[in-house]
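Table S2 (text version). Query chain:
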Amino acid sequence: ADGRGVTAAPAPTVPPTAPGATVGPGAPDAPDGPAPAPAAGPLPVGMIVNQLPTGCVSAPISGVEYYLCGGNYYRASFQGNNLVYVVSKP
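Corresponding C-alpha cell output:
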C-alpha cells in the first residue's frame, strides 16, 4: 500500500440545461441553427427554418410540393445533412 486513498468520484448529475431540458416556459430544444418561423405574417423569401410552424398544410403547385403556413409558402430542402424549410414564392 502506498498510503494514497483511492475513492470513487461521485457520478455527475445532469444539469437542468441538458439536451431535452427547457429553460423557461415553452423554450425550444434547438440550440443551433435557425429558429422556427412564426406562424403568421409575411416572411422574407429565402429565410430558412428548422421546422414548419404548426397548422401547415400541403400545397402542391405545378408539381412542386410546398407547405402553406400562415400565408407563407415553404419548400423542403437540405442544408448539409439537415432537413430545413425555405420560405418560397410559388
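Notes on Table S2: The chain has a mean pLDDT of 77. Strands lie at 48-49, 57-58, 67-69, 72-79, 82-88.
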